[in-house]
């Protein structure tokens, strides 16, 4: 792929010379502009690897051009050389502070220009390769992060499935609570990401039932007070099962397991929390219309 160069100079003869010079070895494709404003407009929608800009131009001088160019997305590291016959220290300092990488003398057939230009082309190609590599790595990290998130979600679903195998009534109840939880979270105005996380973690709310004896959990008739006391321990047990996880979704599941039988009037269990004592909307995932213990 050819190195893409942006050439900006109000002199057509200088532009033509620069274009021939920079494209001579077949490694660069140059785009030229007489107007710096038009050049900036082009740069907003196109990626360049190297910029050569004149200092003295109408409408906008080279230093002002560089300042604006550096603010464009993806243009912070692109090599920029300012072409000028003025080589004062003050001018160089101002250009460097604006973001110039180097300076080119405005002298045709200059050996110095040839050498500096070759170095700039190599630098532009190197920066592009580095940026391409960084973009590739960012893409790989994003893909790995998505895969990790999918695995976390799978773990949660499989934990919830384990509870379903113990309690025939839990399957639809688990899905219903997940949907109700998301609806309530959205109505509370919680961030979209948190609403999604609550939906994913809510199926873990009854995971503590794995510790409840079958003769109580599966009893077809009405529970005695003693049996109800046992089954009510599943909230605290669920929290202990899920506590101290390195996975944020499972941490959220621990909060939900602990708080899913609390009620806004303080009549819930295990802690009898009242509204001003709830840790956050995360702690209340259970719909008040749900009817299972």
UniProtKB/TrEMBL annotation:
Pfam families: HD_5 (PF13487), Response_reg (PF00072). GO terms for molecular function: phosphoric diester hydrolase activity. The keyword Transcription regulation does not apply. Coiled coil: none annotated. InterPro entries: CheY-like_superfamily, Cyclic_di-GMP/3'3'-cGAMP_PDE, HD/PDEase_dom, HD_GYP_dom, Sig_transdc_resp-reg_receiver. Residues 269-293 are annotated as: Disordered. Keywords: Phosphoprotein. The keyword Phosphoprotein applies. CDD domains: HDc (cd00077). Residues 148-293 form the HD-GYP domain. One of its GO terms (biological process) is phosphorelay signal transduction system. Gene3D superfamilies: 3.40.50.2300, Hypothetical protein af1432 (1.10.3210.10). Residues 4-121 form the Response regulatory domain. The modification 4-aspartylphosphate is found at residue 54. This is Putative two-component system response regulator. It comes from Bradyrhizobium daqingense.
């Amino acid at each position: 792929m050819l190195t893409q160069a942006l050439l900006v100079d109000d002199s057509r003869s200088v532009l033509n010379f620069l274009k021939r010079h920079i494209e001579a070895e077949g490694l660069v494709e140059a785009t030229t502009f007489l107007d710096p404003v038009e050049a900036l407009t082009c740069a907003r929608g196109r990626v360049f690897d190297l910029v050569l800009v004149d200092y003295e131009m109408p409408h906008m001088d080279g230093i002002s051009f560089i300042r604006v160019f550096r603010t464009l997305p993806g243009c912070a590291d692109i090599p920029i050389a300012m072409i000028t016959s003025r080589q004062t220290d003050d001018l160089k300092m101002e250009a460097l502070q604006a973001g110039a990488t180097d300076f080119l003398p405005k002298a045709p057939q200059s050996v110095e220009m040839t050498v500096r230009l070759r170095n700039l082309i190599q630098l532009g190609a190197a920066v592009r390769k580095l940026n391409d590599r960084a973009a590739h790595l960012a893409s790989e990290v994003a893909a790995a992060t998505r895969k990790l998130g999918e695995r976390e979600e799978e773990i949660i679903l499989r934990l919830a499935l384990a509870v379903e195998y113990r309690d025939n009534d839990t399957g639809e109840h688990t899905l219903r609570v997940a949907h109700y939880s998301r609806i309530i979270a959205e109505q509370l105005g919680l961030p979209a990401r948190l609403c999604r996380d609550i939906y994913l973690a809510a199926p873990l709310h009854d995971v503590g039932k794995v510790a409840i004896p079958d003769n109580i959990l599966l009893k077809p008739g009405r529970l005695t007070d003693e049996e109800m006391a046992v089954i009510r321990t599943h909230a605290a047990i669920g929290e202990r099962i899920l506590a101290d996880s390195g996975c944020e979704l499972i941490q959220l599941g621990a909060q939900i397991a602990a708080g899913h039988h609390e009620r806004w009037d303080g009549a819930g269990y295990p802690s009898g929390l009242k509204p001003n004592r709830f840790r956050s909307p995360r702690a209340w995932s259970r719909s008040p219309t749900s009817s299972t213990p």
